[in-house]
Amino acid sequence: MLAISDLHVAYGQSEVLHGLNVSVAPNEIVAIMGRNGMGKTTLMKSLMGILPTKSGSVSMNGAELSALPSYERVAKGLAYVPQGRMIFSTMTVKENIETGLVVSGGTEVPEDIYELFPVLLEMKGRRGGNLSGGQQQQLAIARALVTEPSLLILDEPTEGIQPNLVAAIKDVLAAFKGRISLLLVEQYLDFAVSLADSFVVLSRGTVAEAGRMEQSSRDLLSRYIAI
Q: How many domains, the chain?
């Protein structure tokens, strides 16, 4: 599904990612883990074309993405929920979700989106900026899902969210397990372990550990994400 090979990414002259090799299989959930400042968000932005690739390859279903602008990557099946949600605060909930329909060619928000996120149905006429952080996160995920992605990228989806909404988001993502591939940046260990099939730990811009989640040690993972 996704193959990242010898990826180098830099901010100006300062290289942040040093030859990463990561793969995501069809319908696999991969958790990208590590402490703050280790390159996780840089990797996500690079995959979406927000940051340019210095060298290396990013391919999806065999098609090279490295030189493509962000909107063409979305058209090829990538969807991105960035850290901090980045919803349109002055637009209504319904209007926010409809921006994702441009990719899929739809005109109406699918009913199953509102079934997944009942709170968005209740608040579809409310401005996005008036929602709580957890509700905005649900809105950002809904907006990404209506693009009908093959691979959904989530950057810290539980950050700053109350526990009951974390559980709701986990239930939604679990419902898509086996249906789409998911690349998940997450510091909340229980959340990542409960969802992911595989994990990749980044440290100082390189892959420090990687493997199947069921074969990993919680102590090992905790050591890499503890502050």
A: 1
